[in-house]
Design a protein that fits this description.
This protein has about 70 residues and is an all-alpha fold. The chain has 4 helices and no strands.
């Protein structure tokens, strides 16, 4: 098993994920997992579906892959 080094002290949190985006660095697995967990809880608490949360402009700006 290889250990992934965190480049920020906030890696593994939603704030760490946003820092990767802001700095233009590749998102580490810990940050991806943290933001997925955060968004899943957020959508559950607000009663929202995933489609309503990410506008097309953000998808295009960050190159997010949507669908299968």
């Amino acid at each position: 098993m290889t250990k992934t080094l965190s480049i920020y002290s906030s890696c593994g949190t939603p704030a760490g994920y946003r820092r990767h985006l802001r700095d233009g660095t590749d998102t580490c697995p810990r940050c991806k997992k943290a933001i997925a967990t955060y968004m899943r809880r957020y959508r559950h608490d607000k009663g929202l579906s995933k489609a309503r949360l990410i506008p097309d402009t953000i998808i295009q700006k960050h190159g997010i892959k949507v669908g299968a």
